[in-house]
Amino acid sequence: MSSMVRANCAPDSQAKGDRSIFARWKMDLSSLVRRLAAFPVALAALLLLASPAMAQTPKDALFGEQRSALEAARTAFVDTLAPRAFGQALTAYQTAEKDFDRGRDAGRVNAQLAASRQALQAATTAATSARAKLATALKTREDAVAADAARNAPEGWARASERFADAAARLERGDEQGAQKRAAEAEVLLRDAELLAIKGGLLGDSRALIAKADLAKVADLAPRTLDEAKRLLAQADQEINRNRYDVAVPRDLAEQSAYQARHALYLAGLIGPLLERKKDQHVLEELLLGLEPPLERLAAAMDLQARFDAGVQQPLDDMLKTVQARRQELARLKQEAEDREGEITALNSEVKRLEDRLGGVSQERVALQRRVDSQARLRANLTTVETTFQPEEARVSRTGDDVTISLLGISFPVGKSNIDASNEPLMGKVRDSLALFPVTSIVVEGHTDSQGSDSANLILSQDRADAVKQYLVTSFGIDQEKITSIGYGETRPVASNDTADGRSRNRRIDLVIRIDQAQAAQ
Q1: What is 322-520's CATH number, 3.30.1330.60, 3.40.630.30, 3.40.50.300, 2.40.128.20?
Q2: Would you tell me how many other CB atoms lie within 10 Å of the CB of residue 416?
Q3: Percent of the chain clearing pLDDT 90 (strictly above)
Q4: 138 and 161 Cβ atoms separated by less than 8 Å
Q5: Is the pTM of this model over 0.70?
Q6: Positive or negative torsion for Cα 183, 189, 195, 197
Q7: Residue 303 binned pLDDT confidence (cut-offs 50, 70, 90)
Q8: So where are the chain's domains?
Q9: What's the CA gap between 522 and 518, in Å, rounded?
Q10: DSSP string spanning 95-120?
Q11: How far apart are CA 245 and CA 13, in angstroms?
Q12: How many CB atoms lie within 10 A of CB 17?
C-alpha cells in the first residue's frame, strides 16, 4: 500500500519541481530582457567615452542640441509668440530628461526628444506667422522693453504682457479675430507701460527727492524752492506726454527739478536750526554776514573791493562785468598776438625779398606800410565795435581777416523767425558797425540750442538767418549779392546746453564779415 502511494505521488513531486525551475528561468529571462533593453543607452555612453569628445557627458551629448535650440527659441521670443507649441516642446524635453535620469529605456527617451523637436519646429513656424500678424503690437512691445517697462512700470507691464500672451495663444489656436482684438488691447496697455517706464527712468530721481522733501516737511521752511522743483517736474512730465521720444527737454527739466529739490533740502537743513534759535536776535545777522567773506575773497581776486551796505547784488554785478570785460580783453590780446606774429613773419619775408632786389624797393615798402596801417585801422575799428554793444547784446571776435558779430540780444517769437520793432536799437548798432569795415561779403549764420528735434532746429535756424539777411537788404540797402544766409541748427554751440545761460548764448545770429583787404589798404 505504501509503495503504491509512493509510486503514485512521485510524478506529482517531479511536476512541481519542473514548474519551480521554469519559474526561476522565466524570472532570469525577464531580468535579461530588461538589461538588454538598457544596453543601447549603456553602449552609447561607452562609445561617447571612447570618442574624442571625452569631456562631454552622455546626457550632454544626447540633450545638448535640443537644449540649445530651446534657448535660442526663447531668445527669439518663440515662447511668447507660440506659447502652446513651445510649451509642448519644453514639456517633452523635460520628460525625456526625467526618463534618462531614472534609467528608462533609450527608445522612450529618444521618442520624447523627437516629440520635443517636432513641437519646437511647429512653434517656430507659428511664431513666424505671429510676427507678421501681430507686427504692430510686437513693435510696441519692443518699445516697452527698450524703456525697461518690466522694472520701471511692473504692474502695467504685467497686465500688457498677459494681454499680449492671450493674443498669441488665440492666434495659435486659429482664432485670428480674437487675437487681433487682444493684440489691440495689449498695444494700448504696452504704450501706457512704456510711457510710465520712460517717466520712471527720467523723473525717478526728482520724484524721490521731492518725496523726501515732503516727508521732511521742507515746504514749511523752503516753500518757494520746493514749489519750483515741483513745477519743473510737472513741466517735464508734460513734455514726455507731448513727445515721449524726444527726451532732451524733459531730461533737462528733470535735472533742474532734482537740483531745486536738493536745494530745498539744503535750505531747510540750514533754516531749521536757525528757527530753533529764533529767540537769539543775532541769528539772522550771523546768517547774512556768513555770505559775505566768500564774495569778498572773489572780489579781491579781481582787484575789486566789495561793499555790502546796499546788499550783495551790486558786488555781484561788478564782478560779472569784470569777468566779461577780461574775457573780451583776453580774446582781443590773443588775436593781436596772432596778428603781430603774422605781420612779423610777413615783414621778415618782405625784407629778405627786398634785399634780394635793388629796383622798386621804395614802392614795395610803401605797399607794405599800407598793409601794416590797414591792420592797425582794422584793430581800432574792432575795438570801436566791441564797445558799441553791451555784453548781453553782442560779442565781437576776429579770425584772420573775418570779423564776427554774434547777436545774442536779437529776439524772435518762440518758434518764429520774424524780426519785430523791439530789435531796432540793436540793429541800428549793427548798421553803424558794418559802416566801419570795407565789406567784401557777409554771411548770416543762424544757430539754436539743443532743445527740440534736430530737423526742427535746422529749419528754424535757416528761417531766422534768412529773415536777418532780408532785413539787412531792405533796411540797410546792402547789395543782396553780397549776403548769404545759412542755418546750422544746434550743431555749432558756443556754450553748454546744460544751463539756461549756455542755451541763451547758443541761440544767436552770427554776422561773419569778410573784409576787403585790398580796399582797406588804400
Answers
A1: 3.30.1330.60
A2: 12
A3: 34
A4: no
A5: no
A6: negative
A7: confident
A8: 1-56, 58-133, 218-276, 322-520
A9: 7
A10: HHHHHHHTT--HHHHHHHHHHHHHHH
A11: 96
A12: 10
